């Protein structure tokens, strides 16, 4: 019998209902502007134990012996109210500014998510700007379009594409610095009608600081990593400095944050030759220094050197302005500027008989001849990026019968240029190896100027007088434009302007949506939420050019549009004074991105390598949750399930239109099924005053159920694990406050074995291109020297575990920081 995600989740409802589990009460607000703060509505039974909020029940006359987690529609006031829907009884987690300061060695904003249940950001080094993708319960680190990341409600997720490759599409983490974070809220799953289908994995919202009086902050930090891999070792360091200043004067408030980072990352890619491809030596240079190891499929190969090591310089500027037009209406503007200058370097390990490094030509290793080295083995890249973000909103926050908001945002690739040695035009390759490539020669320039996205939204909240309802409705439009021109340079690729076109990719998508959802109390112990999202999606102006001469012919794609409805529902029941049970279900439709539709830049396999007719991913996701407070111990157990049809992955299929060739491209997988169980525990002052503990454990079973595509042979993916989803993962954090001045934390993270390929052929995770298990520990010590000055020292990957996610993660890293707060 085939079961949907909802059916599989419902099958375990009886087991969950028998558990005595419930949530923690809301904590007191430590940093609130309660006089004129925006007002939201929140279910006290879903407030996380780490949230810093101030809650005031509508029923002010509640008796003293009332349940600790009584259901209701509750008004919440705070200086930085979450933009996430607060009335939906589903799983949410929160990390506060205090949590980050005390417990996390946060060198980038994504580090704030480090110890949250079932989440992983694939951050390879400090300032990782092109591969740091968020993974969640049923979405791996190759699926950036299956999560939604916002800052102050402004979209940071990059839905121009999905995953990494020639173009990479992680969230723009660099537009938020750790020092300006007030709070990070996470909602798991697509259970709010207010978000597009990209929310199927998780929705992350960074709330940044807004002052209530004059304040100033400054911070300097240093990190050092000693990395040893394949017999080669070095030390890589990073420096960071930031400053913030802001104030409020009557109705006007402002905030400015600047951040500068210089980072050297460890080598991430490795030039290689499979040992079995060696032939009898007829020519070539005998070399030594190659390292013979098994690859991710346990096939012996020679590693010839480090292919990519980034030196990155980043600058960040964020300006926030707010003006109270009245006692209940506030206008806000935010601008973010992010600059990134990156040098990608490579190093050959090969040496000739004279001991000189070898970067080109046919080579001979251990008496066998191998294909010649080219610029593609030891690339040199230089990138200069400058992206600008704007956001404007006007919001009513009366807390009365009606409230409303209108908002707009713009993200612009103002400058986006990548230069690389070596040039391919119409299948003819002009090599430009090192050492000559370090000073010039032939290469390419990829220019993304004109790429970006913009959003428009309007919403209203209606609280009908005399009823137990909160109705929210809204209209949204998100527009995306991809424009990448790659040009050849025959002179000096490091300095010259663009030459003849190598390829050009353009296209646009637009998503228009209307939604409504209603939360109401249907009894003393019951609350329900029903929502519906209607979407109209368009893709147009898709075009790929492959040469300046028009041979082969450019691909021009017809416009298309589709309509979808996504219902949502949630229910919570207060089963006992300390116990709440919750159920949520929702449909999510994740639209194909511009890059997936039109982004191929070659015709190597066939002229049909693009597929402008990709179907959207359609998921049904459900979860059943039981929450319990056992004195000081707070616990949660969540059963989750998801069925995704037409999931988008790059794979192979026989294309009869292309003379039955095997064509590799982004395609739809018919069905992937995921079920899992997630449990969390948290307690304060455990065993002795000042000791706080928290932990999570997640089990996931995610398999490909049906698929007409394949990797090597038909049917080779059926029953295999979805890539980048481990069976087990866990986190644990112990934090101790010795006194008002000193605190320390010890944290651990674990992830079990996983696969990168659809047919699970990469059985050796501990290799370049593999995905390994890991078990790491981190420590942090914070010293508050005075009210203004503080210092911290930390070690990440304390046990120096060497692990991989295609690229190698950082090894043991030391960090130190000094901070001033006025």
Describe the protein in words.
With 822 residues, the protein is mostly beta strands. It has one domain: TonB-dependent receptor, beta-barrel domain (Maltoporin, Chain A), CATH 2.40.170.20. The strands form 7 sheets. The protein has a 26-stranded antiparallel beta sheet that branches. It is globular, with a radius of gyration of 27 Å. Residues 1-28 form the signal peptide. It comes from Pelomonas cellulosilytica.
What's the quick description here?
The chain contains four helices and 43 strands. With 822 residues, it is mostly beta strands.
Q: What is the level-2 CATH architecture name?
A: Beta Barrel
Q: What fold name stands as the CATH topology?
A: Maltoporin, Chain A
By DSSP (H or I, 4+ residues per run), the number of helices equals 4
Q: Which percent band covers the strand fraction?
A: over 45%
Please report the first level of CATH classification, the CATH class.
Mainly Beta
Write out the CATH superfamily name. TonB-dependent receptor, beta-barrel domain
Keywords: Cell outer membrane, Ion transport, Membrane, Receptor, Signal, TonB box, Transmembrane, Transmembrane beta strand, Transport
InterPro entries: Beta-barrel_TonB, Beta-barrel_TonB_sf, Plug_dom, Plug_dom_sf, TonB-dep_rcpt-like
Subcellular location: Cell outer membrane
Signal peptide: 1-28
């Amino acid at each position: 019998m085939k079961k949907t995600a909802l059916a599989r989740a419902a099958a375990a409802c009886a087991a969950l209902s028998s558990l005595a589990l419930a949530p923690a009460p809301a904590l007191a607000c430590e940093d609130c502007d309660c006089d004129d703060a925006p007002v939201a509505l929140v279910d006290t039974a879903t407030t996380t134990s780490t949230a810093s909020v101030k809650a005031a029940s509508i029923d002010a006359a509640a008796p003293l012996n009332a349940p600790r987690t009584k259901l209701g529609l509750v008004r919440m006031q705070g200086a930085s109210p979450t933009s996430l829907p607060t009335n939906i009884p589903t799983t949410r987690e929160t990390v506060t500014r205090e949590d980050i300061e005390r417990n996390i060695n946060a060198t980038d904003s994504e580090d704030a998510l480090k110890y949250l249940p079932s989440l992983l950001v694939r951050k390879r080094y400090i300032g990782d700007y092109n591969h740091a993708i968020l993974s969640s319960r049923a979405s791996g680190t190759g699926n950036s379009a299956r999560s939604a990341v916002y800052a102050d409600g402004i979209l940071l997720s990059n839905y121009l594409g999905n995953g990494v490759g020639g173009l990479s599409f992680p969230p723009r983490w660099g537009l938020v610095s750790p020092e300006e974070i007030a709070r990070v809220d996470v909602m798991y799953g697509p259970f709010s009608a207010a978000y597009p289908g990209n929310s199927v994995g998780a929705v992350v919202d960074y709330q940044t600081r807004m002052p209530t009086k004059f304040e100033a902050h400054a911070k300097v930090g240093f990190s050092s990593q000693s990395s040893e891999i394949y017999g080669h070792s070095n030390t890589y360091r990073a420096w960071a400095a930031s400053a913030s200043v802001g104030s409020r004067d009557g109705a006007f408030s402002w905030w400015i944050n600047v951040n500068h980072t210089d980072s050297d990352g460890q080598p991430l890619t490795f030039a290689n030759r499979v040992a079995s491809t060696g032939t009898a030596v007829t020519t070539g240079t005998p070399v030594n220094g190659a390292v013979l190891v098994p690859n991710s499929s346990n096939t012996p190969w020679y590693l010839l050197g480090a292919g990519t090591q980034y030196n990155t310089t980043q600058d960040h500027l964020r300006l926030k302005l707010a003006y109270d037009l009245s006692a209940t209406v506030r206008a806000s503007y935010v601008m973010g500027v992010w600059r990134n200058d990156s040098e990608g370097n490579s190093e050959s390990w090969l040496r000739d008989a004279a001991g000189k490094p070898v970067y080109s030509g046919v080579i001979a290793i251990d008496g066998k001849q191998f294909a010649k080295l080219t610029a593609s083995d030891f690339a040199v890249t230089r990138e200069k990026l400058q992206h600008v973000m704007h956001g404007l909103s006007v919001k009513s926050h009366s807390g009365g019968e009606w409230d409303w908001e209108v908002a707009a945002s713009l993200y612009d690739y103002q400058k986006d240029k990548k230069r690389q040695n070596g040039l391919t035009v119409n299948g003819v390759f002009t090599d430009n190896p090192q050492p000559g490539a370090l000073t010039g020669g032939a290469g390419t320039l990829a220019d993304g100027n004109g790429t970006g996205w913009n959003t428009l939204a309007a919403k209203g909240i209606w609280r009908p007088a005399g009823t137990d309802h909160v109705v929210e409705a809204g209209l949204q439009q998100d527009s995306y434009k991809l424009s990448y021109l790659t040009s050849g340079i025959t002179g000096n690729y490091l300095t010259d302007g663009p030459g003849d076109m190598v390829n050009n990719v353009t296209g646009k998508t637009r998503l228009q949506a209307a939604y409504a959802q209603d939360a109401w109390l249907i009894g003393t112990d019951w609350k329900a939420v029903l929502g519906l999202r209607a979407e109209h999606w368009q893709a147009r102006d898709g075009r790929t050019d492959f040469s300046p001469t028009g041979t082969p012919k450019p691909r021009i794609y017809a416009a298309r549009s589709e309509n979808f409805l996504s219902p949502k529902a949630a229910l919570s029941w207060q089963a006992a004074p300390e116990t709440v049970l919750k159920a949520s279900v929702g449909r999510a439709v994740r639209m194909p991105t511009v890059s997936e539709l039109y982004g191929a830049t070659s015709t190597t396999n066939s002229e049909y390598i693009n597929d402008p007719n990709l179907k959207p991913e359609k998921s049904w996701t459900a979860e059943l949750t039981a929450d319990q407070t056992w004195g000081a111990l707070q616990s949660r157990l969540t059963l989750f399930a998801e069925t995704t049809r037409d999931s988008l992955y790059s794979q192979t299929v026989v294309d009869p239109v292309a003379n039955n060739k095997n064509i590799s491209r982004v395609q739809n997988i018919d069905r992937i099924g995921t079920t899992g169980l997630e449990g969390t525990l948290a307690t304060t002052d455990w065993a002795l005053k000042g000791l706080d503990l928290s932990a999570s454990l997640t089990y996931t079973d995610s398999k490909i159920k049906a698929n007409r595509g394949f990797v090597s042979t038909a049917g080779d993916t059926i029953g295999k694990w979805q890539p980048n989803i481990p069976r087990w993962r866990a986190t644990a954090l112990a934090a101790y406050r010795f006194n008002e001045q000193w605190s320390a934390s010890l944290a651990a993270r674990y992830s079990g074995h996983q696969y990168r390929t659809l047919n699970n052929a990469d059985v050796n995770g501990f290799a370049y291109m593999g995905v390994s298990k890991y078990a790491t520990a981190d420590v942090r010590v914070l010293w508050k020297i005075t009210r203004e000055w503080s210092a911290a020292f930390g070690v990440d990957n304390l046990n120096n575990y060497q692990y991989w996610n295609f690229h190698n993660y950082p090894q043991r890293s030391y960090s130190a920081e000094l901070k001033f707060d006025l």
